Amino acid sequence: MDIMRRSLALGAALSLVAMAAQAAAVRPGCYSTADIEAEQAVHFQAQLMVVSDICRDTTYGEFTQRNRDAIMGYQKQMIDHFRRAGERRADITFENYMTRLANQASLASGVHNVAETCQTTSGMIALANSIGSSADFRRYIATQAAANRAAYLSCADAD
Fold this sequence. Notes:
78% of the residues lie in helices and 0% in strands. By secondary structure, the chain is an all-alpha fold. The longest helix is centred in the N-terminal third of the chain and has 22 residues, at 2-23. The model is unreliable at 1-27 (pLDDT under 50).
């Protein structure tokens, strides 16, 4: 029961923060290949953070330590993307964006109890544990970006 209350409290807190974050949502814009990869990486990071917290798993902390350089590079790329989209406070926009992603992941996991959530996300935890370095993470994210490229307005297509 303690885990369930903790998950519900986390979801409620993230919901409140997300309302503020949605007010600061970035305007639509085009995405370079590097931008697409960065967005895929921050999605993965946010989802892993929430899953690790709900499941009381240490994977997120270990993953971020192993992949610090890649994560920092992807975050910088997203801040640059927001700046190119016209955001004056691109760093704040990025923080709000990460909060919104974490909130969405938390809400999505809230439809199941903790045991179900942890069981259905065990593959993600295993994947994160198998990514041993920033180079491995970059390779994985490049494949994800290529697979999801059609969902983005490419800057080459926007010309």
